Amino acid sequence: MSEAEQTLSIIKPDAVERNLEKEIKTIFEKSGLKIINSKKIHLSKEEAADFYKVHQTKPFYDRLCSYLSSGPIIAMILEGSNAIKKNRELMGATDPLKAAPNTIRKLYGVSIDKNSVHGSDSPENAAAEIKFFFK
Ligand code: IDP
Ligand code: MG
């Protein structure tokens, strides 16, 4: 028996722009994850930098923050057993070229930057990221 867990998912600007919200939400729902909250929001570059601060030492940080703030995104709380891991599996590898068949990034990702979705990678980050969007 595993208890329900929550994670944060984001549909990134490239996917919102291509009207992929329904398709991506359907993938979550069909896999047994419940979308318990969802909101469309356009972050400022400062807010994106705050959200991605764990990456502030990475060479791609500035580009990453510019990109996340380049257009509207959809932030969601997903809930279900092993939600963090399940979401990461549904997303696929960071680079769409390396993502497994039928994963969201394989199906819809354009590049390592425009890879369509974000998902929390640990219980600590899930809690912090949910708080960031749904305080
Ligand atoms: P994740 O989104 O699969 O968890 P992270 O390593 O947490 O991947 O990186 C956050 C985001 O930063 C990625 O989704 C991707 O868009 C971008 N990114 C990661 N690694 C690179 C890179 O080597 N070059 C450019 N962008 C990257
Ligand atoms: Mg990550």
Summed up:
This protein has seven helices and four strands, in the order E-H-H-E-H-H-E-H-H-E-H.
How many domains in all? Answer: 1
Distance between the termini: 29 Å
Spatial ordering of strands, largest sheet: 2-3-1-4
CATH uppermost class:
Alpha Beta
- Name given to the CATH homologous superfamily: Nucleoside diphosphate kinase-like domain
How would you state the average pLDDT, rounded? 97
CATH fold naming: Alpha-Beta Plaits
**Sequence of secondary-structure elements:** EHHEHHEHHEH
Describe this structure in words.
The protein has one domain: Alpha-Beta Plaits, CATH 3.30.70. Helix 3 crosses helix 4 (61-68). The chain is globular and about 40 Å long. 41% of the residues lie in helices and 21% in strands. It has 135 residues and is of the alpha+beta class. The model has no long low-confidence stretch (mean pLDDT 97). The protein has seven helices and four strands, in the order βααβααβααβα. A four-stranded antiparallel beta sheet has the order 2-3-1-4, with helices on both faces. The structure holds inosine-5'-diphosphate and magnesium ion (MG).
